[in-house]
Amino acid sequence: MNKIFKIFSSSIVVPITAIVMGLIVGAIIMLFGGYDPLLAYQSLFSQVFGNLYDFGETLREITPLILTGLAVAFAFRAGLFNIGGEGQFIIGMTAASFIGIKLSGLPAIIHAPLAVIVGGIAGGLWAALAGYIKAKRGVNEVITTIMLNWTALYLGNYVVMHFLLLPGQQRSEDLPESASITIQWISDLFSNARIHWGMLLAVLAAVFFYIFLWKTKQGYELRAVGLNPHAAEYAGMNVGKNVVKAMFISGMFAGLAGACQVLGVFHYQSVLSGTPGIGFDGIAVALIGMNHPFGVLLGGILFGVLTYGSAGMSFGAGVPPELIRIVIGSIIFFIAAPGIVRFVLKPLYLKRKKGKVL
Amino acid sequence: MDWVTTLGQLMNTTLVFSTALIFGALGGIFSERSGVTNIGIEGLMTFGAFAAAVSTHFAGEAGMGVASPWIGLITALIVGVLASLIHALASITFKADQIISGIVINFLATGSTLYMVKLIFHGDGETALLKNVFNKVAIPWLSKIPIIGEGLFHNYPTTYLAIILVFVAYFVLFKTPFGLRLRAVGEHPSAADTAGVNVKRMRYIGVMISGALAALGGATVTLTTTSTFAHNTISGQGFIAIAAMIFGKWNPIGAFGAAAFFGFSQAIRSYVSLFAWSNSIPQEFIYMLPYVLTIIVLVAAVGRSRAPSALGEPYDPGKR
C-alpha cells in the first residue's frame, strides 16, 4: 500500500496523467468539431511511427526542441526566465551559416565542429548580454530577451542579405559539404530523413546540464542563486557573475539548436519574416520536463512526436493540426497544476487507502 | 514635404501602433499589481483578436452594419475574461506556477483560435475580410489644431478609448479603495488578508480585468489595422506589451509612455524611408531600432524597475 502511495505522489505519475488528460481534452474538442478522435490519434501515431522516413524526421523535429528546452530549463534553475531562446537560436544559426559559408575549403573534420561551436558560443554571448545588463543595471531579463529576439531577427537577416546572399533569392548560399553535420549512413538507413549529429549533441547537452548543475561547485552556486539570490550573496557568492554565466550556458544550448538546424537540416539560411517560434516552444518543453534535463529530453520527445504527428492527424482525420497546441497547452496546464491531477486521482487513491488526504 | 503635416501624421501613426500595446500593458498591470504574473497577455490578445473578428463578421452578416465592430469589441472583452479565468483558476486556486499557466494561455490561444477559424471558415486559416471595421473619427474643433489636431484628434475610437483608459486605470489603481486593496494584495497578501481583504477574490478580479483589457487590445488590431484574423495577427505584440508594462514600472501612465515609444519607433520606420539619407542605412537596422533603443534607454536611464513584491507567489494563508 505504501508503495502505491509513493508511486502516486512521485513525479512520474503526475506528468503521465497530465498527458492522458491532455489527450482527452483534445479528443473532446475534436468531438465538438465533428471529428473522430480515435482516427485522429491513430493517424497521429502512424504518421510518426508508420515508416522509417517519418520516424527519422520526427527525431529531426525533436532535436532542437530538446536544446531550446534545456536552454529555458537551465535559466529557470538559476532563477532566470529566458524568453530569448528565439533570438539565441537565430544568432546561433547565423553564426554557423557565416562560418559555414565564409570558411569553405576547410576540411570537414574541422569545419563542421567549428561551425557548431561558434554557433553555440554566439548564442551564449547573445544571452549573456541580457545577463550582463541584468547583473550591472538590474534590468529585468524578460524585457531584454524579448527585445534581443527582435534584434536578432533583423541582425540575422542583415547578415544573410549582405554577406551570404544567394543572388536573387531570399536566402543564403548553400552551405558546403564540409560544414554539414548530417550523418549520411543513418540518414540513408531512414530513407533520407534529415538525421544529424545534433541528436547526439542534444543528449550530451542534457547530461552536461545534469552533471554541471548537480555535481559541480559552480552548479551548486547557480542553483543557490536561483533559489535565493540574497542568501547566496550573503554566503559570499557573486550573484551577478552567476547570472551572466547561467545566461551564457542557457543561450549556448539555444545557439546550438540553431547551428544544428542550419548545418544538419536546411544547409542554408532563409531571410526570416518572423521569429521561428522554437524558443517559445522550448519554454513548453522545459515546463513539461519540469526543468530537469532528463525531463526535458522526454518533454522534447513528446512535443516533437505530437507536432510532427499533427500533420498526419490532418491528413488522416481532417483535424486542423493546430489542435495539437491545445493538447500541449492542456498537458502543461495539468502538469503545472498538480492539484488538478491529484484531484482527479484522489477517488482512485482513496479506494486503496482510506482517510489519508494527498 | 510639408513637415507640419508629416509631424501630425507621424504622431497619428504612433498612436495607431500604440493602441493595442496600451491595452495589453494596462491588462498586464492589473494582473501583476494583484500579484499574478501574466505572461499570457499575448494569448489573451490573440483570443480577443479572434473573438472580435468572428463576431464582427457575423454581426455584419446579420445586417448590424456600423454597430458590428462595437459588438466585436464587447465579445472580445467577454472572451478575454473567460480565457483569463483559466489562468486565474490554475494560478490562484490550484497554486500553479504563474509563468506556466500564462504560457498555457498562449498555447491554448494559438491552438484553439486557428482550430475554430478553420472550423468556422471551412478550412481557411484566416477569417473573411471584415466589411465593417472602425474608421478614423475626427473630433470636431480639436482636430483643426495644427499638428496636434491631426496627431491626436483624428483617430480610431479604440485609440481614444485606450488613452481614456490609461487615466481611468491610474485613477482606479491609485485613488480608489479598490485600487489600494488590489495593490496591497500584490505587495503583501498576508497583511492584506489580516486587514480583511479577500486575497483570492482580489486576484481573480485583477486577472479578469487583465483578460478583458488584453482582449480589447487584440480586438483593436483586427478591427482597425488588419481587418482579418490569421495566425500572425498577434505576433509578439503581447510580449512587447509586457515589456511596456515593465518599462513603465507597472504604472498606467508609465506604460502608456512606453507603449507610445514602441509605437513611435514602429511608425518612424515608414517615415524614415522618405528621407534620402536613409538609403545609406540598411533597412534591417531601421527595423532593429525600436528594440535596440529600448535596451539602451533601459540600461542608461531607467535601471532597476521593481515589481510588486508578492508577484509570482501563490498566496498561502498558512505561510508566515
Automatic annotation (TrEMBL), chain A:
It is a multi-pass membrane protein. It is found in: Cell membrane. It holds the Pfam family BPD_transp_2. This is ABC transporter permease. The keyword Metal-binding does not apply. Keywords: Cell membrane, Membrane, Transmembrane, Transmembrane helix. The chain crosses the membrane at residues 12-35, 62-83, 90-110, 116-135, 147-166, 195-213, 246-266, 272-289, 296-317, 323-345. It comes from Paenibacillus segetis. Its main location: membrane. Coiled coil: none annotated.
UniProtKB/TrEMBL annotation, chain B:
It comes from Paenibacillus segetis. It is found in: Cell membrane. InterPro entries: ABC_transp_permease (IPR001851). Pfam families: BPD_transp_2. It comes from the Bacteria. The keyword Coiled coil does not apply. It is a multi-pass membrane protein. This is ABC transporter permease. Its main location: membrane. The chain crosses the membrane at residues 6-27, 39-58, 70-92, 99-121, 156-174, 204-223, 285-303. Keywords: Cell membrane, Membrane, Transmembrane, Transmembrane helix.
